[in-house]
Amino acid sequence: MLSGVLIIDKPYRVSSGEHIRKLKKIIGKEKIGHAGTLDPLATGILIVCLGQMTRFTDYLAAHSKTYEAEILFGNQTSTGDMEGEIINSSLFTPKKNEIINVLNSFVGDICQIPPMYSSLKYKGKSLYKYARKGISLDIKPRKITINSIKYISLEDKTLKIIINCGKGTYIRVLAQDIAKKLGTLGTLGNLRRIESANFKIEEAQDLDLIDQDNISKKIIPPGDALNCLNKIQCAPEIIDKITKGQKVEMKLTSEDRFLRLFDENKIFKGIVENCEGYLKPKRLLTID
Prior knowledge:
This protein is about 20% helix and about 35% strand. The chain is of the alpha+beta class. Strands 1, 2, 3, 4, 7, 10, 11, 12 and 13 form a nine-stranded mixed beta sheet that branches. It has a five-stranded mixed beta sheet with strand order 14-16-17-18-15. It has a two-stranded antiparallel sheet with strand order 5-6. The longest helix is centred in the first third of the chain and has 12 residues, at about 15-25.
């Protein structure tokens, strides 16, 4: 049974769903999913979860991600990226010092309105399906977290930045909002995810080089795949109680809410919750 994650380097103009379907042909009946969609025009890390690892997808998706992004000043498109139609233009290009000040103002918890051209659901349907029919919806803003934005360069009208952000951040919207605050218009150009859930782009693999003969060697096992969470190793009697669904009184020095649980043989058992002096089972591996 295959269980763990594959770190894939998704290429340009290929959807996350296409990659999942290609892998499904290789793995057969095993469960499969991914921890964080990438738009077709974006490239970089796609974390693919296999087998029992699909039970832990949310914990990977919730961790911070880092992107290399380009903001092209001058035009606004219907989709916020280069795939849409130009709907407005501006001749103004801001200066470096203005840009750095504005970038700093976006760091922290901010509100963002999700784009209509997205897979976010409204009444059971993806927003992009409404957008393609010309239907406009009143989408409520959501709180997101921008951990850092680093200025890289400004050449002609192209601004290059590196963004580290939390779950649910739309870089297309961020690009438009940055341009707007600078007094101009902007569209997202190239976008590359270079880090996600502690995995770096250097670890990512080309899907075309993965097949039935080598896939098992390329899979990262569940305990290691969740290294974005700290770990705790427990004695057999504690493991026994937790795997039976019981909570155990235990005061930890760690303030982390969720931890990886390992037994005395360093075998991964699942995720536990550190809650008010107790260790409680949160999501455990199932026993085959």
